[in-house]
From TrEMBL:
Protein's organism: Thermus tengchongensis
InterPro entries: NosD_dom, PbH1, Pectin_lyas_fold, Pectin_lyase_fold/virulence
Leader peptide range in chain numbering: none
Xref: SMART domains: PbH1
Protein name, entry field: Copper-binding protein
Segments forming domain Periplasmic copper-binding protein NosD beta helix: 150-315
Superkingdom: Bacteria
Amino acid sequence: MYSAVQALPGSTNVPSPGPTLRVMHHLGWWPFFLGMVLAAPVLQLRGEVEGPLVLATPGLLVEGRGAVLRGDKGHTLSLLAPGIRVRGLTVVGAGPGDDFFEPDAAIYLRGCRGCLLEGIRVEGAPTAVRMEDSPRAVVRGLRAKGLGESPGVLVYGSPGVRVEGSHLLGYMDAVYVEYSPDMVIRDNLLEGNGRYGFHVMFSWGVRVEGNQSLRNGIGNAVMHGAENRVVGNLLAGQGSPVGYGLLVQDERGTRVEANRFQENTLGLVLMDAQGVEVKGNRFQENGTALRITRERGGNSAWVEGNAFQGNLYDLLVDDPEAEAKVVGNRYDRASGLPVPHLPTGSFALLLARQPELSLFALSPGVLLWEAAEAQVPGLRLVALADPKAEPLARETRPHGGWLFLGLLGGVLWWRWRA
């Protein structure tokens, strides 16, 4: 009899296998011989399997084929060796621990370099996948619904990890990352999470590409890192009073390119971000499309080739020392004349400093004021003017009323906080 499962009953960080573990497949001598020949031991799971289950055989292939692994203590499945692959498994439940940084997980990876999770489904666990010190691990095709308090996929100290083609909803953050350079978050659907779709911290060289992050409680964030890339994503429906499509905070040399920001209270927020490139994005029907603000540091940005359409405000700046180069963008408010276009007005600049004035954002007086500024170039402010602005056709549908409600909610929140 050959077993590809190595249990670690004395482990202090990972729960020991439960007494009712059942693997519904007898391997026998022929699979042992075949595994020796192919150097790829195989564990076949069938039917209902009781966890927790701990695997520590390098290169092990676990075939779920519709099997269900259940657990209610600690991590339900722990992978503790390089090169383990798990496919087609459904994991139901885990321990009750929902601490954001150290939650109980359906699947826990530690020291699992190059491991693969593919076609996994997770139900009823605080966190779907938690990994530490597992470089180049891959999570592909994960389907998971959370319990609201913990991340869906939690990645810590694991360079080169990939999270691809997955659907995560109902978590605090769908994907939360710390100290994991060169990570790839690609082609995922992240929706209906309590705080963020993707949340990248203290990392560099991360690529966030082709995701749909929709209707999350706050939005998405890339923070305290450098040279990260956010490219080709749909960031939409973050309509809470403090919601934004993307926050780029305390970043250096990060690029935000070819994304679509739609129907967010704030589209893109740059805070204390240096050398950020904002190029080829589409800002559509947001409350404020692009906001540049400062908490402790300064801002410098290159804003080029973007399209601004149907936003209540295209640009707000409340950092008087911001070094923002705005050039060659398209605006539905641009006149089409060969004159510089300022994608903000004096009221918008005032609003950035006094948020309570958003109560008057759609009042007849302010609309008349802004219309006058748009028609008389002499009344326009010259700071942040786009010297190569191009006109963009206006959308026929009106601004959504929820944008104003979002601004009003933001004022109430701001007043309550103060």
